[in-house]
Amino acid sequence: HPFSTRNVMKSTGLYLRGTQNDTLSVNRTSLGFRDEVTISSRTFFFGKLDYLRDTFKSIDYLVAPGAGFGFKAVDSDRTKHTVDAALGAVTEKNPLQDRRTSGAIMLGEKLTHQLTTTASIKHEATALWKTQDLHDALYTISAGISAALSSRAQLSFEVLDVYKNRPPGITKKNDVALITALTTRF
To answer: Which of 1, 11, 37, 109 holds its CA 20 to 30 A away from the CA of 67?
Structure first.
């Protein structure tokens, strides 16, 4: 394989801000960068960096770099299913608390299935556990459907569930968002 097909860099960004009855009800920013290098037809190595800020989870910031290996359980033209595991670190800052850093264990799973030439369904789940306290975890699960508008753009509808096992104070552990997005590829 030429280097360009063995190495894939991906970046993601999500900014959610919403109101309900004129009261702010969601204020979240998440960013991610991932660099994958293919080892064989089914395996890959990756490095990643994730960032999260969520006012309603009382997270001023959470930064989690990591590196690990992944496996393509299914890799056909219509269906792709990958699982991966990484080790890294996590630094979290909450309001009125000092910044805390810990080792991190990260797991991920992603499934996409092409329904037609222009429509697909997708599912993704990630988990991050702090090694200093394995009960302090962050889980993200999403499911959605998308339709291609062109070769470089798609419209998608997605349900996103974010669950923080030990949020600070009296913060809600779980929240769900319905997202409509326009995605582009470069």
So the answer is: 1
What is the rounded distance in angstroms from the CA atom of residue 145 to the CA atom of residue 159? 9
Q: The sheet that has 174-184: what strands, in order across it? A: 7-20, 23-38, 43-54, 59-75, 79-93, 100-114, 119-130, 133-148, 153-164, 174-184
Residue 28: count of CB within 10 angstroms of its CB:
20
User: Full-prediction pTM beyond 0.85?
Assistant: yes
The beta-strand segments (E) located in the chain are 7-20, 23-38, 43-54, 59-75, 79-93, 100-114, 119-130, 133-148, 153-164, 174-184
Strand, helix or coil for residue 151: coil
Q: How far apart are CA 183 and CA 148, in angstroms?
A: 9
Direct distance between the N- and C-terminal alpha carbons of the chain, in angstroms, rounded to an integer: 21
**Residues 92-149 pLDDT 10s:** 998 888 999 999 999 999 999 999 999 999 999 999 999 999 999 999 999 999 999 9
pLDDT at residue number 143: 97
